[in-house]
Amino acid sequence: MRIVAWLRDPNEDRGTIRRKLQAKHTAGQTNLVAVSDLDASMTLAARVLLMVSIGDFGLSVTIGQPILWESGPLQRVVDGVFEPATGHLETFRLPKIFNAVNLGRIAGIKVCWTSNLADHLLMNDDEGMVTLFHHVTFLKLHQKSDCLLLSDALISETILTLALLLPSNCRATRKYFEKCRARFSLDPAAGYCGHMSARARRIESFRHWKDRLTILKQAFDDSEPHTISSWWYDDRKRVQWYTFWIAALVFLLTVVFGTIQSITAVIQAWVAVKSIP
């Protein structure tokens, strides 16, 4: 808790905190505490405070690049990781069909739940997977505290992305999330972040997660239906959707009536043979 208090102070850098820890733990002792132990304690405190996988503990799992904190204040590291997007002129609206359920149904993109905020909305093309940070309760508690390491804008926008991908007014997404929550012990609040209006779903509404949402939307748009189920749910191109199902219906009716006609002909032939004395 003492380390966390120092980390929240923007005037404290890693070197200063290390020296304070060294002085605290060596007071009245003859043995010095190893610098590696002090660094590990600071890294662990930073991870617990921010829910961001800072440093390299060897056995930790993260999708993105390792986040190193070697010097300077922790705030500088946080600002570098969650830097708002700049210089992008894309102006488009994220459609209502763009949600976590349809990512799997239509595009075959699996959702992987993460406890690392830095991995939120990160695409893994090789695995066909996107990661979602689900600890909404943590975000809201952090928002109410006086800790300013995670900005209010970042927290609010992160919750909005969950409202976008897990709209609480959609029965299918609620059912999907409840299954995931029971299976992976997710934060229940993640599935009840509300929903976004058509105007709010414009990409300009997002600054911190704009680039990752754009990449995910591009992967969703580039995907093609690959199963009967995906063809059924994919109505992004209405003309193509109607054409496919009309053709499928005509083919089915042709097969059905052809089968009925064949069976009728066989029955008639059998009756004719039986009637011959």
Write the layout of secondary structure elements.
Blueprint lengths: L1 H6 L6 H13 L8 H16 L23 H8 L18 H6 L4 E5 L8 E2 L4 E5 L2 H9 L7 H14 L5 H14 L25 H13 L5 H6 L4 H38 L2
Parallel strand pairs: 1-3
Antiparallel strand pairs: 2-3
Helix pairs in contact: 2-3, 6-7
Keywords: Membrane, Transmembrane, Transmembrane helix
How would the global form be characterised? elongated
How would a crystallographer describe the biggest sheet? 3 strands, mixed
Low-confidence stretches: none
By DSSP (H or I, 4+ residues per run), the number of helices equals 11
Précis, in short:
By secondary structure, the protein is mainly alpha-helical. The protein is built from eleven helices and three strands. The chain has three domains: 2-81, no CATH class; 100-231, no CATH class; 238-275.
